[in-house]
Amino acid sequence: MTPAVFVLRLGEIFLKGGNRPMFVDKLAANVKRALEGLNGVATHYVHARMLVEVAPSARDRAAERLGRVFGIQSFSPVVLCAKDFDALRDEAVRVAVAAAGGAKSFKVDAVRSDKRFPVRSMDMGRDIGAAIFHATGLRVDLHHPDLVVGIEVGVHHTFVFAETRPGPGGLPVGASGRANLLLSGGIDSPVAGWLAMKRGLILDATYFHAFPFTGDKTKEKVIDLVRLLTPWHGPIELSVIQFAEAQKALRASGDAELAVVLYRRMMLRAAAEVARRRGATALVTGDSLGQVASQTLENMSTIDAASPLLVLRPLLCYDKLETMALAKRIGTYETSIQPYDDCCSLFLPAHPATRSTVARAAEAEGSLDVAAMAEELADRAERILVS
Amino acid sequence: MEYVYLVRIYLDNAATTPALPEVCDLVVRCLREDFGNPSSSHRLGMAAAARVKHARAQLVAALGDGQIVFTGGGTEANALAILGAARRGREASIVVSAVEHPSVMATAEKAGRVVVVPVGADGVVAPADVADAVGPDTAVVAIMLVQNEIGTIQPVAEIARLVHAKNDRVHVHCDAVQAVGKIPVSAPALGVDSLAVSAHKLHGPKGAGALWLRRGKTLAPLWTGGGQEDGLRSGTENVPGIAGLGEAVARAVATLDAAAARMAHLRDRLVATLVAATGAHVNGGAAPRAPHIASLSLPGVPAEPLLHAIEERGVYVSAGSACHSGAHKKSHVLEAIGVPDGAGTIRVSLSRLTTSEEIEAAEHAIVGAVRDLAQLLP
What distance in Å separates residue B318's CA from the closest CA in chain A? Predict the structure, then answer.
């Protein structure tokens, strides 16, 4: 039983200097986690490549999962080969015949990083190209080939491949630290989380549940959204915070126009408290500049002033259509648009303030012990490990 | 007064019901022991066929003499009747009441030109209006026996009589999913050509239902295959579901009179308490109603939060109707009977397993939820 083998090409990690081993270790661990359950996984790191073996029957499933591991620029299923020119040529011909399909033209891309191998890249390309031409009848096209037969002769491994798939790029999850994602159940926040992961953040998630104004179906939907993010990330701890009582207290402050700003300030405080307990050092939100009343510069400033942690907004300058397109690509869109809306709209004033100041918000919060409220919200969070 | 609600009080029986233990045992026996294919000619197959035959006899005994076609539930039974009868004619029109279930409404739209007959504010359709809507091109008239959101009983027998008198080629179908086991149902006495039943509404398993078909009536099948169920429903019979349906229907009908009287008594008590405490309006309250459903509109209280506030107290009811999964749009039934916008509507539905203690606890829960919510809202 020959295992199925992939070569993974690492992207931006290779711009890194002294930290490179840390990035590579994270990636190796993430790949291993992504391929869990697919039998006989082994990873070897060689130069800018990583080799992965899985059970032969798991080849397609492994390919699907590798496409979701951040830090991989591209990857190819490969056939390992003895470091012997004749064997390499025969294997290359077999691979080319199997992959030819409807192709009309091809080229050979040979790389020799083991300089002890006696045949130079140029010569390999020419001789193996001739053998493939005889076997398949495909013509050679060095500029726009339908089929590229890749050959790599490395110090440790020699292999042939005919297919290269794109990886998601980015940095390995965990390489940039830990943050807490505020999830609402809408379209934006899962996409913001995905972008944060892409830049190497490991995430926890926090959802504010306004039961009974929001039914448990919305909570289920949020759990589903978190689950859709896990293939890109691994298990995520979701904190569900009951928020109706806090909303009631904030609304009692009397500044109805400011209600949403006050809710958001309290959400950031509570999320920051959850983050602190989890060792996370930033918050991530799905805010987009000017999208709704709470997302004006003034209101975002007022809201941020309540957060002891850095607030990251990956979608700040995305148009809604761009966010929707990305949500469709990563697979969260269909779940996000399910009609279990949050019923916070019941509490919305007809004309929410688009300009607020920290002073006005602080005045409205005046009689409330907001720090104690945030702690209590975090204390009472229901913690769900979603995998 | 603080109540601690530790128990689960299920009052959403018009959405679905828990299966009876005896029904569950029978279903499991059919999965583990009599698991043969009823079409096989060996003994295991014959044992399974006997289960199906017995269930068929149970349905005939309950609903009256006719052909029984087992289906995957009430929706499929409605679809088989409407599409199956409409396909035989060309450019057919389908006459329905304004308060039909979506499985009839949406299917009728697929089957032909739909003529919707309005209902009065009491939620009842007038037989003469239905007969007036029938024309020479009418293929099917579909009227439900018990309305699933408000519980009103439609005058199906009178409708069938008038329609057949006007045009005897019209297929009169009756969706009796909410009626069987709640009010007496005899398909021949109703004078309909077909009648739909669902198992899970009367303590049977989900995924099982039947279409009662007047003898001599033919329908076009929805799909083709091995020709089971007289060619009307190809596919290996769902023996566990069919056996469970037969048993559930038999038991529901056997205990009907006492169960209906008890449900009506408990329902009326609950309604009286809620009306007195909250000023709720009873939808369909002026019409003859099945004993298990109460639809209440509460001005100024939104339905979804109310539903969840009641749920928080351990009582499960539904907002309007649970069939419009999650959509926050107003129900076409409530619209048809003129329930004003801004009034939250909940449906409380009992089963014959509902107890007096449960109703008492539900009264406290619902009244408490309404009061709490009124305080939380601006």
Answer: 12
Contact yes or no for A346 and B328 at CB 8 A = no
Q: What share of chain A is helix, strand, coil (3-state, %, to 5)?
A: 45, 20, 35
Report the C-alpha gap between A205 and A215 in whole angstroms. 19
| Helical packing angle, B43-63 and B239-254, nearest 10° | 30
3-state secondary structure of B234: coil
ω into residue A212 within 30 of 0, thus cis? Answer: yes
Side chain identity at residue A277, one-letter code: R
- Residue-level pLDDT at A345: 54
Predicted pLDDT of residue B2: 46
Which of A212, A339, A340 lies closest to B309 in CB terms? A212
Choice among A357-361, B197-201, B242-246, B247-251 with the minimum mean pLDDT: A357-361
Closest residue, chain A, to B376 (C-alpha): A248
The reply to whether A244 touches chain B by the CB within 8 Å rule is: yes
Contact status, residue A322 vs residue A224, Cβ threshold 8 Å: no
Which residues are CB-contacts of A334 (< 8 A; sequence separation ≥ 6)?
Answer: none
Which candidate, A363, A339, A377, places its Cα nearest to that of A247? Answer: A377
B323 is catalytic: yes
pLDDT of residue B327: 47
Q: What pTM does this model have? A: 0.84
Distance CA B206, CA A147 (A): 53
Please state, in angstroms and rounded to a whole number, the distance separating the CA atoms of residues A198 and A238: 19
For the complex shown, is ipTM > 0.95? no
Residue ranges of chain A whose pLDDT lies below 50? 343
**Of B302, B308, B326, Cβ closest to residue A211:** B308
